[in-house]
Amino acid sequence: MTTITHLECSLCGKQYEAGRVHNVCECGGPLSVRYDLVQVRQGWSREWLNNAPPTMWRYAAVLPVGKPGSIVSLGEGMSPMVRCRNAGARLGLEDLWVKDDGVNPTGSFKARGLSCAVSMAVELGIRKLAIPSAGNAASALAAYAAAAGIEANIFMPRDVPLSNYAECKAFGAKVTLVDGLISDCARLVAEGRATEGWFDMSTLREPYRVEGKKTMGYEIAEQFHWELPDVILYPTGGGVGLLGMWKAFEEMEAFGWVSAKRPRMVAVQAEGCRPVVEAFERGESRCRFWENAYTAASGLRVPKPLGDFLILDILRASGGTAVSVTDAELLDEGVKFAAEEGLFMAPEGAACVAALGKLIAAGAVKANEKILVYNTGAGLKYLEAYSTRFPRSAAAEQDKLGGLITPR
Ligand SMILES: *Cc1c(COP(=O)(O)O)cnc(C)c1O
Ligand SMILES: [Zn+2]
User: Fold this and answer.
1) 7 C-beta closer than 6 A to ligand 1
2) What is the Cα–Cα distance from 386 to 109, expressed in whole angstroms?
3) Is the CB of 377 under 6 A from ligand 1?
4) Backbone phi, then psi, for 288, in 5-degree steps?
5) Which among 348, 373, 374 is the best mutation to test ligand 1's pocket, defined by most ligand atoms within 8 Å of the CB?
6) Which residue from 77, 200, 258, 395 could staple onto 252, CB 3.0 to 4.6 Å apart?
7) Whose CA is nearest to atom 2 of ligand 1?
8) Which atom of ligand 1 is nearest to the CA of 235?
9) First vs last Cα of the chain: how many Å apart?
């Protein structure tokens, strides 16, 4: 099936053998999976995809799983690519698109990474998984671990959206709510690794989640008929989706499927947690730890991404940028956009549309460019955050005005 040659440290270049259990390099750098792309290309073509399964596993030739029987799939991937004429008209953009990953299993794009990572855990015989999560990664791990029949130990901040907590419990995971941030959760997972024998599924401490997220880049290319958009706005927490898309572009270029021209990659963050934006603006190659991180866009609450240097490299190499918006801006945009397009985005996705206004004002995006907003999740997972836009007192007001029908 797959032709992995080895894993390679993205910091020091040291190589590791495929088919064995790995976390990070001995230098602490994240490991990146390498394939024999020449061999992949010989047995695979864009035309082959015409009859491929309608999930991200249509790209199995460039995914790390060796045996089809190891694949744990709930139908993730091949999400809709939606043209947004109404929001585009408001913003003055002729060619605005949203890739809607809110329709994935567990309502977020985390399904892609965890489907791949749990499949690899099955293949490598790992039985006990653990994850620190800002919310959606936990939900996805819990779902795929349930489907695979293996143990999931989950550590989340105690103020995660209720949807994430309820999903993890429903899927039968062992859940610990932590009075702290994802960085505090990560410490608890590291402790359990030593005492409980857990395998750490953290972003970039596990080599295969990013491979699953790579399918985002393949799908964008395929759905746009192998022509990449001019700009991609991506709500950046740990930045794995950004790294995954970039890796996909490189692989597809090696296959001759896309040209060398890359989209300008834009990292969007929330004002309450903007380490990537700060580092980008300062011209630094790594992020500083963001103290007291807070945002309703919980997926963006990552005080210091492990792959910060990789994210910043990509933003600069692509001619892109990094922007932040306030929570009020991103929640208001989520509601406005839903009313215009019939698509209820996660606050993280809505942050990207809100950021577009700023980029247009700054002249960083032009009216006739093809712009893609990556919506990473479903608005329905964030009822507490969005309900601040529909306070109950307003409902009561409606009642007085006769908006509510009371049965006799
Ligand atoms: C995790 C998450 C993000 C951030 O993803 P990264 O790839 O880690 O940057 C964005 N949006 C949502 C909805 C998420 O769950
Ligand atoms: Zn290394």
Assistant:
1) no
2) 20
3) yes
4) -95, 150
5) 348
6) 258
7) 299
8) 10
9) 65
Classify domain 81-107+208-389 by CATH architecture.
3-Layer(aba) Sandwich (3.40)
DSSP 330: H
Q: What is the pLDDT of residues 44-83, one digit of tens each?
A: 999 999 999 999 999 999 999 999 999 999 999 999 999 9
Residues found in the chain: 408
Instruction: Kindly state if the Cβ of 293 falls inside 6 Å of ligand 1.
Output: no
Task: Output the CA–CA distances (angstroms, integers) from residue 62 to 44, 99, 279, in the order listed.
Answer: 10, 21, 32
Tell me, what amino acid is at 55? T
341-370 confidence digits (pLDDT tens): 999 999 999 999 999 999 999 999 999 999
For ligand 1, what atom is nearest to the CA of residue 346?
13
Measured in degrees and rounded to the nearest 5, phi and psi for residue 111 equal: -60, -35
**Ligand 1 in reach of 209 Cβ (< 6 A):** no
Q: Which residues pair with 32 in a beta bridge?
A: 8
Which pair of structure tokens corresponds to residue 106? 């567990």
Q: What is the CA radius of gyration of the chain?
A: 21
Please report the atom of ligand 1 found closest to the CA of residue 349: 11
Query: Phi/psi at 168 (nearest 5 deg)?
Result: -60, -45
Q: Is the CB of 299 under 6 A from ligand 1?
A: yes
pLDDT, residue 347, reads 98
DSSP state string for 108-120: BTHHHHHHHHHHH
Which residue bears the tokens 């402790």? 191
Cβ-Cβ contacts under 8 Å for 217 (sequence gap 6 or more): 244, 245, 246, 247, 248, 249, 252
Domain boundaries, the chain: 81-107+208-389
What's the pTM value of the predicted model, to 2 decimals?
A: 0.95
Tokens found for residue 304: 């210091």
DSSP string, 193-220: HHHH--EE--BTTBSSHHHHHHHHHHHH
